[in-house]
Amino acid sequence: MVPHGRPGQPRRRRRAARRRPGRGAGPRTDPDLPRRRRAPPPGGGGARGRRRPGRPAARAAGVLRRGPLGGAAAARAGAGRDRVRRRGGDRRPAPGGGAAHQPQRQAGPGRAAAAPRPRRPGGLGEGRGPGRLVTAPDFPFDHVGWLEHPHGIGRVGARHVGRTVAVIGAGIAGTVAADALSAVGLRPVVYDGVGVGGRMRSVPLRPDDPYPAELGAMRFSTRDHLVAHYLRDLGLRTYPFPNPLSPAAPRALVDVGGVRRVVGRGDLPADLAAVDRAWRATVEDVADVGLVGEALAERDAGTVLRIWPKIVRALDEVSLRSVLLESPHFTDRTSRDLFGHVGFGSGGWDTDFDNGVLEVLRVVAAGLDTDHVGVVGGCQQLPRLLWDRTRAATGQERLGGEVAAVVRDGAELVVTERSGRRTRHAAVVCTAPVRHLLVRLRVAEELLAPDVVRGAEGIHYMASSKVLVPVDRAYWLDPGQESLLSVLTDRYPRAVYLFGQSPEGPGTVCLSYTWNDDADVFRGMDAEARAEACLRYLDGVLPGHAVREHRRGPAVAVTWDEQEGCADAFSQNLPGQYDLQRGLYCDFVRPRPPGLGFYVAGDDVSWTGGFAGGAIATALNAVWGVARDLGGSSPPSNPGPGDRFAELAPVELGPRGPGA
After folding, report:
1. Which single residue of 15, 335, 463, 647 has CA 20 to 30 Å from 401?
2. Looking at residue 283, what is its pLDDT?
3. Comparing 57-86+269-372 with 143-198+380-459+575-648, is the CATH topology the same?
4. What are φ and ψ of residue 461, in 5° steps?
5. What pLDDT is stored for residue 407 in this prediction?
């Protein structure tokens, strides 16, 4: 959450690497292979401008990286250049020709092809050009272009039009799936025992509340263009999200190790600025994430496919903690601890240290850690409005109940609710947590591929908790007032967020947002007890915070693994779990005979757990699979994710172990 450098502070260009005399006579290594740098030898490093050990040539030549510590894109190497330097052979030839393959929306009848948009250097808080190709580099398919193509996403075969498809789960993935199933000519029937929203749960704290208690999802990156597509489509308004030290919350209290400081966005203390630089340098040394990010921004799938698989092969079994321990930039435990408590971007605290580093690099490459917005009126409006549209299209008056079992009966699937009600469907799209497939939902194993079973039993989840209270107005925005600030701390609240756009308007205070073991601190406590514990913390660090005086209503709290129908808050893979995730994500292309059309989708199927765009992509993938099984296809002018799977497929890792 530390901003990327200081506003207006230029970054130095790195000089081109020079080959030292007598070096380089051995076999040439692959310049794209990511390497983790070793610490420099005793006595210091070499002269400036000399290529440092373990750094690919393009890094030393000036291809700059984006700063993950809350920063935006780095300026391009070389002032005035309008193209990023790339090594030869960056672009994969298009099938059937030698031109570079760059997926883009095709012009339809009466619609001119869009001219390329001008690019400009990214700066603090700025986006990077027209938008990212995908929300993760593992499968660089342009889902937004597919959705917005004038020829549509496809249609099922004529004899299957109007058949019912069960959708289990009414969160964002389930409601997107239902909406898309209607678009291809099917009649979705949505089931959820809790209600519409899933982990997009907004609890109003006052009438017509613009800032409800966001118990689940609360912020989206403006670079997540799948989410942006649906926000536009549904007419929802957004506001700048107040991440500590973002433009919407430029000052924050940092309380780590007993040292309390009020920090300004443009004036970082030396130790925090050093942590910022250390993290950016570490990411540069670990992998070509900057090149992948540029390729995603330029909608250049060929470059992504050339670089990202090498990163995956090299780092699949590496944790974030091991990267930090080996980094020469985090020279002591104090700097690592400070990084762990302050975090980068939207979080990334020490609770992520044992997760696979690929989980972090995906977020960094896709730019999901910066430029966040909230939804006026709450994130839950997204699935609710999609459900309203599905109801209008299908006539389904109310949600089906909680599902107890799914079995095959001939060429159809039978869904049994816990009430005992049974219905038959042509296919099923299940967006419930995959951990529930075999036990809670009792899905017949003949419907599940072995890769899905392995994923369901092995996927890793993150716990999370929040505590929020309403206040009469956003009084912390009064001129000259600093009695209440956003907070980043190593103490039990971990983070405090302040929601409100004007001093006279309504406000909401998130007193605590915690992950994993930190979330267990509040286990067994009701909302009021949690709120009082957090207020006691504020009494000690910001004695004049005045939350009690301005409070206007009861506290609201959540611990996600205690919620009905949930498996913690979201999924995050441990080192070595890439194959599990690949098996879940790629299941949508597996051929299915009649009666076996069961598809998984949702947060834990996606490559970016905890980010809504990833869950949306899996729902759209599943709809493509259902349409294919029911005699349909996407238009030739607008191929779907499965049509391009052979070209864009996630890398498949080989056997592990000695001699593999």
Report:
1. 463
2. 87
3. no
4. -120, 160
5. 96
* Burial class (CB within 10 angstroms; exposed 0-12, middle 13-18, buried 19+) of 340: buried
- Following DSSP, what letter does each residue of 379-438 receive, concatenated? TTHHHHHHHHHHHHHH---S-B--EEEEEEETTEEEEEETTS-EEEESEEEE-S-GGGTT
CATH class of 57-86+269-372: mainly alpha
Residues ≥6 apart with Cβ < 8 Å to 330: 278, 282, 324, 336, 339
Q: How far apart are the first and last CA of the chain?
A: 40
Q: How many CB atoms lie within 10 A of CB 125?
A: 18
Task: Give the whole-angstrom CA distance, residue 142 versus residue 105.
Answer: 9
Asked if the model's pLDDT at residue 58 lies above 80, the reply is no
Residues 1 and 212: their CA atoms lie apart, in Å, by 23
pLDDT at 561: 73
For 599-651, how does the pLDDT look when each residue is reduced to its tens digit (9 = 90+)?
999 999 999 988 999 999 999 999 999 999 999 999 999 999 999 999 999 99
HEC sequence for 640-655:
CCCCCHHHHCCCCCCC
* 418-420-423 Cα angle (round to 5): 100
Using 50, 70 and 90 to split pLDDT, how confident is the model at 376? very high
> What fold is seen in the domain 202-221+237-253+462-562?
Polyamine Oxidase; Chain A, domain 2 (3.90.660)
Split at pLDDT 50, 70, 90, the class of 134 is low
Query: Which stretch of DSSP H or E encloses residue 189?
Result: strand 187-191
pLDDT value at position 432?
93
Local structure of 375: helix, strand or coil: strand
**Which pLDDT tens digit goes with each residue over 276-296?**
899 989 988 887 888 898 888
What class does CATH assign to 143-198+380-459+575-648?
alpha beta
* pLDDT at 5 > cutoff 70: no
DSSP classification of residue 350 = G
DSSP symbol at 168: E
CA distance 68 to 383: 30
Residue 11 has pLDDT above 50, yes or no: no
Burial class of residue 161 in the structure, from the number of CB atoms within 10 Å of its CB (0-12 exposed, 13-18 middle, 19+ buried): middle
Q: Is 473 exposed, middle or buried (0-12, 13-18, 19+ CB in 10 A)?
A: middle
CA atoms within 13 A on the CB side of 42: 0
Which residue from 300, 261, 339 is spatially nearest to 2, judged by alpha carbons?
339
Residue corresponding to tokens 């091991």: 322
In DSSP terms, which residues pair with 280 in a beta bridge? Answer: none
So where are the chain's domains?
57-86+269-372, 143-198+380-459+575-648, 202-221+237-253+462-562
Kindly tell me if the per-residue pLDDT of 409 is higher than 60.
yes
Q: Say whether pLDDT at 6 is over 50.
A: no
pTM above 0.70, yes or no: yes
The C-alpha atoms of residue 535 and residue 327 are separated, in whole angstroms, by 38
- Whether residue 477 is predicted with pLDDT greater than 90 in this model: the reply is yes
Which residues make Cβ contacts (< 8 Å) with residue 117, sequence separation at least 6? 129, 130
Angle separating helix axes 333-342 and 270-286, nearest 10 degrees: 90
How far out from the chain centre does Cα 390 lie?
A: 26
- Average pLDDT of the chain to the nearest whole number: 80
